[in-house]
Design a protein that fits this description.
The protein is an alpha+beta fold. It folds into 3 domains: 5-60, no CATH class; 67-127, no CATH class; 140-183. It is built from 9 helices and 4 strands, in the order H-H-H-H-H-H-H-H-H-E-E-E-E. The chain has helices at residues 5-9, 11-14, 18-21, 30-37, 41-52, 58-65, 68-86, 94-103, 115-138, and strands spanning 144-151, 156-167, 170-172, 175-183. Strands 1, 2, 3 and 4 form a 4-stranded antiparallel beta sheet that branches. It is extended, with a radius of gyration of 23 Å. The structure holds zinc ion.
């Protein structure tokens, strides 16, 4: 059986390409390798390189070049975006909060002073928290899943998913996702 180590290390990036699945027998040919190099293989190679040497990735190089001042401003903008999400406030509140900081003597610039930037920051924070959770789960032996659904206003069944596991000797219940199950049948009126 011939398969690609890099691709198997990153199943979500490999998207089931030929050598992620693997070939055997007569299919072990140079042509298979040539075809493989044209698939999602390069993404997996990149991810593998980033894992081995994180400081060598393009994003890390950009961050290193970013001045300390800019980094500080970005951290504060991310904190404001986190606050907006945590308070379940609309993203459109973000520019006003940036203005408030300006009034209090903290100039955060106008580049990201809009609701779209706020959405991007919140999505990045969410992804990072999800990645942290995945890392923690890899180190835990047991976990259980709790879920319950309710029907929203558009008659769609939305399932809330939580996990339970033990962290530092204490049980924790992090929220994982809201999953759309399917449309609910309309209630019949007699
Ligand atoms: Zn590969």
């Amino acid at each position: 059986m011939m398969f690609c180590k890099s691709c198997r290390a990153f199943p979500s990036l490999a998207k089931g390409n030929n050598l992620f699945v693997g070939v055997s027998g007569g299919k072990i040919r140079i042509k298979t390798l040539q075809e493989h190099s044209k698939t999602s293989h390069s993404d997996c190679e990149g991810a593998q390189a980033a894992k081995v040497n994180p400081s060598g990735t393009p994003i890390a190089c950009v961050l290193q070049k970013m001045s300390e001042n800019v980094r500080e401003k970005m951290t504060k903008l991310f904190n404001i975006a986190y606050f907006v999400a945590k308070e379940e406030a609309p993203f459109t509140m973000f520019p006003s909060l940036v203005d408030l900081h300006h009034k209090n003597g903290l100039d955060l610039g106008d580049t990201y002073k809009n609701d779209n930037a706020c959405r991007t920051f919140v999505q990045a924070i969410g992804q990072s928290m999800k990645d942290d959770l995945v890392e923690k789960l890899k180190n835990t032996h047991f976990f259980s899943v709790m879920s319950d659904s309710s029907v929203d206003r558009s008659q769609k069944d939305q399932e809330m998913v939580y996990l339970t596991y033990v962290e530092d000797g204490k049980p924790v219940n992090p929220f994982v996702d809201i999953v759309f199950i399917g449309a609910c049948p309309q209630p019949r009126h007699p």
